[in-house]
Amino acid sequence: MIKTLYLMRHGQTLFNQRHLIQGWCDSPLTELGIYQAQVAGNYFKEQGIQFDQAFSSTSERACDTLEIATEGKVSYQRVKGLKEWNFGVFEGESEDLNPALPYGDFFVQYGGESQQELQDRIDHTIRELMEATTGNTILMVSHGGAIRNFARAWEKYQRTEIKTRMTNCCILKFTYSDGIFYLEEVIHHDFSNWKGPVN
Question: Which CATH number goes with the domain that contains 56?
Fold first, then answer.
């Protein structure tokens, strides 16, 4: 059976807006982040996409994004394995303190995860969930670093390239067949109609 996975990043958060490192720590969606989740939800509606099952990182920003995008009409399971990279004591600090890419093992000495640990965790989690699902169309809401590293794990099978960073509420569409994930499409949304915060 071929299954389809829509792997989506959460909407903009307060920490995103303030350029603070946000991995296992959390902050709420901004008004723009809420709008972004609504736009992603409209995309699913316009494409006639209905989810058989849905999963979210346990982080509030991901759960809220999923609930907004599905208008609370899709039950979902919260899964710790879908969380973002653990940045250790760098959590909540300025993004200016990040080392140059690739991060590799940098955060391990500060109580965080290595890039390989993150990649192994997110890959194991998503494969396990996809094997256990009974439906064909699955939504998972996770985080930029986690999603990018999952895609990297299956890069040799990709049918399209990721040419930009993982923007808020961007979606990677994979097909899953015989234990292999094939990246089929990278979906970015147009948020230019956003009118700004409501006073």
Answer: 3.40.50.1240
Residue from 182, 185, 125 nearest 3 by CA? 182
Q: Which amino acid, residue 3?
A: K
10 is catalytic: yes
Q: Is 14 annotated as a binding residue?
A: yes
Annotated binding residue 13: yes
Confidence of residue 196 (pLDDT cuts 50, 70, 90): confident
pTM of the full structure: 0.96
Q: Is 71 a residue of the active site?
A: no
**Residue in 84, 91, 113, 143 annotated catalytic:** 84
Q: Does residue 199 form part of some domain?
A: no
Q: Per the annotation, does 4 bind a ligand?
A: no
pLDDT per residue as tens digits for the range 16-66: 999 999 999 999 999 999 999 999 999 999 999 999 999 999 999 999 999
Q: Does residue 137 have a known ligand-binding role?
A: no
Catalytic residue among 10, 67, 91, 143: 10
Question: In this predicted structure, what is the pLDDT of residue 199?
Answer: 54
According to DSSP, the residues that pair with 54 across neighbouring strands are 139
With respect to residue 198, please indicate whether it lies within any of the assigned structural domains: no
**Confidence check: pLDDT of 188 > 60:** yes
Can you list the alpha helix ranges (DSSP code H) found in the chain? 14-17, 31-46, 60-69, 115-132, 144-153
